[in-house]
Amino acid sequence: MKAVLQRVSRASVTVDGQIVGAIDGWGLMILLGVEQGDTEKDSSYLAQKSTELRIFNDQAGKMNLSLMDVEGGCLVVSQFTLAADWRKGRRPGFSRAAAPAEGERLYLHFVEQLKSLGVKKVETGVFGADMKVELVNDGPVTMLLENRFAETDAQS
Question: Rounded to an integer, what distance in angstroms lies between the CA atom of residue 86 and that of residue 124?
């Protein structure tokens, strides 16, 4: 599982010309890619990490505050292309992506985990839809979180 976190001052997602999810003010735009073999444990781990990472500036301008500290929201959009294998040829392959039903299940689990962790506003796109995403990346600050680091992180 991979999550791309972007620190934003606002973000929205549109489907068929209609805004289906938006956050305004400090928060995270999260692109979530679910791969074969991913589990609820991976989803929970990445949700918790997303809320705890200190990537928002404090009054001194240092990245010292978490999403929870700034009471920010999240806009979560499914992004199966994060599972792309681009190493051979010029056309990426997506065989590592989870099957759609499993991908949606773990995506929704991730969203529910954010809510249960106390994120004040959690908005989403529409799983499997053609979406248009707009955001203002503040900083810019962008982080890539991957579940393959979860086991290493737990040991430190």
Answer: 27
What residue ranges do the domains of the chain occupy? 2-155
Beta bridge partners, 142, equal 6
Does 48 participate in catalysis according to the annotation?
no
Choosing from 14, 51, 56, 80, the catalytic residue is 80
Q: Which amino acid is at 9?
A: S
Stated pTM of the model: 0.91
Distance separating alpha carbons of residues 6 and 62, to the nearest angstrom: 17
Superfamily for 2-155?
D-tyrosyl-tRNA(Tyr) deacylase (3.50.80.10)
Rounded Cα gap, residues 74 and 50, in angstroms: 10
Q: Is 124 a catalytic residue?
A: no
Summarize pLDDT for 10-65 with one digit per residue, the tens: 999 999 999 999 999 999 999 999 999 999 999 999 999 999 999 999 999 999 99
Active site residue 80: yes
Catalytic: which of 6, 14, 51, 79? 79
